[in-house]
Amino acid sequence: MRRIWFTLTGALLGALLCVGAPASAQQDGGLSNLGVVQSVILTISPDALFNQSAFGQRIAREIEAESAQIASENRRIEAELTSEERELTELRDTLAPAEFRARADAFDEKVQKLRREQDEKARALGQRTEEARRALLSAVQPVLLQIMVDSGAVAVLDRRAVLLSADAVDITEQAIQRVNEEFGEGTNIVPLRP
């Protein structure tokens, strides 16, 4: 049963790839004279589009720099808190119990506050990556539409959602090239961070 399913799926995909493609495109393996894939269905890897584009690489560098800054802050904060804790421990025997308890509670509150602040910075950094991905995918719609029109396609599908496809219908590299030409590092999509 499974073999029949894959055979039928392969036959259907093959038929879809051939339907509507010009004879010249079929003769040269799905490529027109201009090097444009001719297929009714195209696929793209959104992850590769983001990660390999100049825009995605710029965002990755910014995120990496901000991550390093947060890690440096965390190490500095940890060293300061360790020193404060040591001082508080040394004062334990010389302070009245009520005063020690008040200082210990204040220290615990400070630790929790700093932890929340640093966790929020890390969360915001993760959200920034996702926001940049969405901004890129929104901005490149006209580019993908033009590739689709040039290819005579009726759909561009996320490669992850496709069970089986020929590599010839994947337009990821072509899209990356056009996105780089159109947007460069994408400062008009997401401004540079100060």
Describe the structure.
The longest helix is centred in the middle third of the chain and has 43 residues, at 97-139. A two-stranded parallel ribbon has the order 1-2. It has a domain at 2-68 and 123-183: Protein Binding, DinI Protein, Chain A, CATH 3.30.910.20. The chain contains seven helices and two strands; from the N terminus they run ααβααααβα. By secondary structure, it is mainly alpha-helical. Mean pLDDT is 82; it is low at 1-33.
| Secondary structure category | mainly alpha
Q: Based on the structure given, which CATH architecture of the domain at 2-68 and 123-183 is correct?
A: 2-Layer Sandwich
Q: What Rg is obtained from the alpha carbons, in whole angstroms? A: 28 Å
Query: According to CATH, what is the class of the domain at 2-68 and 123-183?
Result: Alpha Beta
Write a concise keyword list for the protein shown above.
2 strands, 194 residues, Protein Binding, DinI Protein, Chain A, rod-shaped, mainly alpha
Brief overview, please?
The chain has 194 residues and is mostly helical. The protein has helices at residues 2-18, 23-27, 46-52, 54-91, 97-139, 141-151, 172-183; strands at 41-44, 155-158. The model is unreliable at 1-33 (pLDDT under 50).
What are the SSEs and their pairings?
Blueprint: H1 2-18, H2 23-27, E1 41-44, H3 46-52, H4 54-91, H5 97-139, H6 141-151, E2 155-158, H7 172-183
